Structure formats: structure tokens, C-alpha cells
Amino acid sequence: MMVEKGISTTIQLSSLTGVNRNTLSQVLRGEIQPSAEAMRKLVSVLEIPPEHAGEIFFSPNLRNA
């Protein structure tokens, strides 16, 4: 999803969403689940359809979602 939006780094994604870069890195590595607020921001910026947000964010391997 990031690539399709022209976002190549967690620093860029952090800047666009307001979600801490370290938190984003942990989420992308599957170490933590994003908070509801972080998910809302990511869904908005990445334009993820709500019906797909849950399956993406709760996937065991987020990098491949």
C-alpha cells in the first residue's frame, strides 16, 4: 500500500500520518498491533478500504499484506 501511494520510508509515512516512526516500524515488523488511532490515520492516508483494514492490520505478516 505504501508503494502504491509513493511512500518509500517509514519516515515519510510517519510525517504524513503523525504516527511515531518507531511505532510504525514495530507495526510493520509485526511486533505490535497498531492502536485504533494509528489505524485510523493509516487507513486515511493510505486510502485503505475499511473492509480490508482489519485483515491487513491483524495479518501475522503485515509486510506481505
Automatic annotation (TrEMBL):
Gene3D superfamilies (UniProt xref): lambda repressor-like DNA-binding domains (1.10.260.40)
HTH cro/C1-type domain ranges (all copies): 12-53
Recorded superkingdom: Bacteria
InterPro entries xref list: Cro/C1-type_HTH, Lambda_DNA-bd_dom_sf
GO molecular function, one term: DNA binding
Designated name of the protein: XRE family transcriptional regulator
Organism from which the protein derives: Paenibacillus ginsengarvi
